[in-house]
Fold this protein.
Amino acid sequence: MTSSFSKLSLAEPLARAVAEMGYESMTPIQEQAIPVVLQGRDVMGAAQTGTGKTAAFALPLLQRMMKHENASTSPARHPVRALVLLPTRELAVQVAEQVKLYAKYTKLNSAVVFGGMDMKPQTLELKKGVEVLVATPGRLLDHIEAKNTVLNQVEYVVLDEADRMLDIGFLPDLQRILSYLPKQRITLLFSATFSPEIKRLASSYLQDPVTIEVARSNAAASTVEQHFYSVNADDKRRALHQILKQRELKQAFVFVNSKLGCARLARSLEREGLKTTALHGDKSQDERLKALESFKRGEVDLLVCTDVAARGLDIKDVPAVFNFDVPFNAEDYVHRIGRTGRAGLAGLAVSFVASSDTRLVSDIEKLLGSKIEIEPIEFEEDRPRIIAQGRINDGRRMYREGEGPDAPNDGLAREAIESREPRMPREQRAPRERREYTPHRQPAASRDPFFDQPYEPGAAAENQPSWEVGAKANAAGSAVSSNIKPKKKIAALFKTSN
Ligand code: AMP
């Protein structure tokens, strides 16, 4: 049973914001965490993005901070009181946008700082004074070292996606940041899993936390139809094309294990006529946000992404998820397939298993607690290929030797460190490159700022995916990618807010 926000007796400005967001009842994590945080207890929460976790911590923290609310323009009257740490820029932006919406009718300021952008505009914001600071660890340390912010009045710390922060190697940075904070504080730690490392982190920094678990980390959505196909590396793209068509899919996420593989696969699929975009950590912030927006708008049909880049992005109910590469971590499998089949909708998760993936599949079996059947794939067209302008468009000849997403070494480029530059002692660091600042997307005035509209199939005619369009184009003898001159169809697959 979920219950209404009204029973929380939130301050009027917060209640108004929540009502405006259109939330009718609390999600399970909110129901469990909000009262506990309001009481001032530390929390260790197992909850993934998409569960309503941000409001679960932001609302009670804002409520507790309302006593400090003031209209003064003096920065000293707006010290950082709540610090929210996240592993990636996208997550930081997403959480900051939500916090801004929840705090919109209060006089509590918030800001976000993350790497890969000029520090100056962030510095100007920090210097104005902000009560809630959302940050990625590396950039926050830069600001601390530059004395752009002081954290000696922090009362609340949220370590969000803590498992991912540890995976990326942020532990030393986290330890340093936490050492700057007052000992007397409330600490909330959210993690998809409670690994031994996470438990150690919690025992070092949390005091008598209340443990809240809303969904077990290995609880793969029961509405997701899962298939594991045995596919040679060379045949994976062909298998992808076939399943997209056979299952009449409109859009899909395609996960790969490395940045390099991600870019290459996206390029190959694009060349093969599928409207594809890539999301990985080597893309600029601006490019990543654009990629997501165009997927949301239905301008691209396939989003090829890496785990770190996609982690936590709140795009819901994608019809299908492909594991072009079986993930290195079984938990990533659960995260990946959590993109599909949400909210009771049927989803499809397809994994392509190469012969070298046996161990990874057995890790997934262990995590899921059920046996995985690896199915053979039968290719429909082991008949003559369609020839478009003299090019054999079977998807198998697009790579130069040793270049494909499955080429040796690709897997080695584990992207764990992608979301930040490696840190070295400050004195050895070269001066940072100053980049043009592109302000990130402003939160829309509507209740769903960016990624949060559920998947809605649009009209079939408008929504014809590129694999269908491509098939017709090819049949008609055209080899031009449908993405080169996008048709004026816009699938309202993900309605934009506003
Ligand atoms: P989060 O897990 O915090 O990233 O939230 C995922 C999405 O759920 C965001 O789009 C929120 O705006 C939305 N959301 C959060 N809480 C609720 C709620 N109680 N009712 C409806 N939507 C919510």
Q: What stands out?
A: The longest strand covers residues 224-230. The pocket of adenosine monophosphate is lined by residues 23, 26-27, 30, 49-55, 314, 448, 452 (CB under 6 Å).
